[in-house]
Amino acid sequence: MTLSLIGLVSIQIYWIKNASAVKEANFRRSVNESMVKVVQKLERMEKNKAMQTNQYESMLNFNRHLEYDAFVTTGGLDSLISLVLNMRGIDTRYEFGIYKPEGSQFLLEKSTNYQNELIQKGYAFPLFPNDIYTSPEYLCIYFPLERQFLLTELWGMLLISIILIIIIVYSFSYTITTIFRQKRLSEMKNDFINNMTHEFKTPISTISLACEALEDKDLRGSGEFLDSYLSMIREENRRLAGMAEKILQTAVIDKGQLKMNKEQIDVHKIIGDVVKNIRIQVEIKDGEIRRRLMATHPVIEGDKVHVTNLIYNLLDNANKYSPKKPLITITTENASNGLVITIEDNGIGIGKNDQKKIFDKLYRVPTGNIQEVRGFGLGLSYVKAIVEEHHGKISVDSEVNRGSKFKVFLPNIIRE
Ligand SMILES: Nc1ncnc2c1ncn2[C@@H]1O[C@H](COP(=O)(O)OP(=O)(O)OP(=O)(O)O)[C@@H](O)[C@H]1O
Ligand SMILES: [Mg+2]
User: Fold this and answer.
1) Distance 377 CA to ligand 2 centre (A)
2) Which pLDDT does position 120 carry in this prediction?
3) DSSP annotation string for 76-87
4) Which ligand is closest in space to the CA of residue 378?
5) Computed over its alpha carbons, how large is the radius of gyration of the chain?
6) Arithmetic mean of pLDDT, 14-21
7) Residue closest to 397 by CA, chosen among 338, 332, 336, 343
8) Architecture of 262-411 per CATH?
9) pLDDT in the model for residue 221
10) Engineering a disulfide at 102: which of 60, 83, 135, 173 sits with its beta carbon 3.0 to 4.6 angstroms away?
11) Alpha-carbon span 47 to 41, nearest angstrom
């Protein structure tokens, strides 16, 4: 496609060049024909004048034609040239003069500013070619705006070509970017399905193992075992339900059917609940969650379940992506008409380029060695959707290998 595009553009350029050469040749021919006419007319005018004033004979005798002013003035010649040129469709500015190489002088000229151009770049036509006794004189004509004139004639064609080329290039690049976007999307979907299968597999196999154990008649007698297996099944089932819920939630957001149950919620209380849930996972890794709840007015209008999930997702990420001794700090502050929640960790961080994409659905930072960290790539896209539903803002500030800081602003009152 690139090759044929280049070919097309070069052919186009070639044709335009050709057309401009043809135009130029046409122009020259028209100028030639016009000026030959002018020269002939001048000859006739001179003869007529000579006959009228009875100088014809003396002219023959002396082999010398009349002075220019005697039969044609500058103005007269100008209107003659203009008439002839106009007849051929050449209506651009021109300068003319009658030049005599002997003595290098202009016998007549329209304006005195173009003497050099007339001699160097103008078109010259010998005057009175039959008069062999006087030294030659030339009628020179010069078009100061010749280029522009020829270009305006080509302008339409040039414009259409440029527009067509732009359209082709645009659709070409659009197609290419679409193909690449689709390819990336399909890769992400593949990853998602892989991850999902893995995530579901663990609880499913745990449950089936527990079931097998329960079927064992020897174990059934002991109430203690029964309880522990049951609670294991319940726990794994809860995890499965949670995961299914997460995936379904995304579909709901996609359809724009997210429902919000607005009420007055105390964010400090929600943070307390979430931290209680997640603390064990952090402490297993020898880590710590610090709370710096400095907001004096932590109550906002919002949906309790969604805000809980929001904070859970951010804390979950902070824990998941901090492989060694996570130190997670969660801070709240009152801002003008709202609340700012900051969640900071000392984990692997996110590169500048990825920071723009992590809020996209299914996007996960591609890292070779930490692929054990499982996830769907849905968490942050959900968080963003929720923040937007609350008319808030979310931003990330992160440095690779240093840690990440997510800042969420939620307004006190949701104004539609
Ligand atoms: N605190 C963090 N530190 C480093 N990287 C992070 C952090 N939070 C998110 N990321 C990166 O952003 C990506 C997207 O995060 P997101 O929460 O949307 O998905 P996930 O955690 O992979 O999966 P899940 O849907 O289970 O939350 C992650 O895969 C990770 O690469
Ligand atoms: Mg996550």
Assistant:
1) 6
2) 87
3) HHHHHHHHHHHH
4) 1
5) 45
6) 89
7) 343
8) 2-Layer Sandwich (3.30)
9) 67
10) 135
11) 10
Residue nearest to atom 31 of ligand 1 (CA): 365
Alpha helices for 216-285 (secondary structure H): 217-220, 223-254, 267-284
Nearest residue (CA) to ligand 1, atom 8:
317
Q: Determine the residue type at 17.
A: K
Protein residue closest via CA to atom 9 of ligand 1: 317
User: Counting every residue, how long is the chain?
Assistant: 416
The pick from 189, 282, 364, 406 for probing ligand 1's pocket by mutation, whose C-beta has the most ligand atoms within 8 angstroms, reads 364
Residue 199 CA: which ligand is closest? Answer: 1
The protein residue with its alpha carbon nearest to ligand 1, atom 1, reads: 318
Domain limits, the chain: 2-144, 152-254, 262-411
Mutate to test the pocket of ligand 1, among 321, 342, 371, 383 (most ligand atoms within 8 A of CB): 321
Q: Which amino acid is located at 109 in the chain? A: E
**Ligand 1 atom at minimal distance to the Cα of residue 322:** 3
Residue type, 226: L
Q: Which residues line ligand 1 (CB under 6 A)?
A: 313, 317-318, 321, 345, 347-350, 358, 363-365, 375-381, 404
* pLDDT the model gives residue 259: 86
* Domain at 152-254: CATH code: 1.10.287.130
Q: Please give the pLDDT value at position 183.
A: 95
DSSP state of 135: P
Is the whole model's pTM more than 0.90, yes or no? no
Convert the pLDDT of each residue in 128-141 to its tens digit. Answer: 877 777 778 899 99
Q: What is the pLDDT of residues 201-246, one digit of tens each?
A: 989 999 999 888 888 877 666 777 788 888 999 999 998 998 898 8
164 Cβ contact list (under 8 Å, min separation 6): none
How sure is the predictor about 389, in pLDDT bands with cuts at 50, 70 and 90?
very high
Q: Contact, 111 vs 148, CB < 8 A?
A: no
Which ligand is nearest to the Cα of residue 360, counting in written order?
1
Q: For residue 343, which atom of ligand 1 is closest to its CA? A: 1
